[in-house]
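Table S2 (continued). Query chain:
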Amino acid sequence: QVQLVESGGGLAQAGGSLRLSCAASGSTFSIMGWYRQAPGKQRELVATINSGGWTNYSDSVKGRFTISRDNAQTAVYLQMSRLKSEDTAVYYCNAGKSGQYYWGQGTQVTVSS
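Corresponding output:
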């Protein structure tokens, strides 16, 4: 059974940093990533990374956030720097293989200005 468990969310001040972690169990994955959903908005892509290390970022976080994953392909991280109030959202871990995708339960990130 696949399970994704996020950690590392919380409260940060604008301009500060937070690091999110997602531990996957039950499989390894060809692509892993982070999405977020702010109140009243649709869930949106933050960043993804595939097994070859290729990364993709939304324009809103490019240059401020860094995604990485472990060599075992079972964990993904999101280093968030220079946080802004508009980064406030629930952040979800996502992992996929062979056309199937899985979600974590989400972790709240709140940035105070």
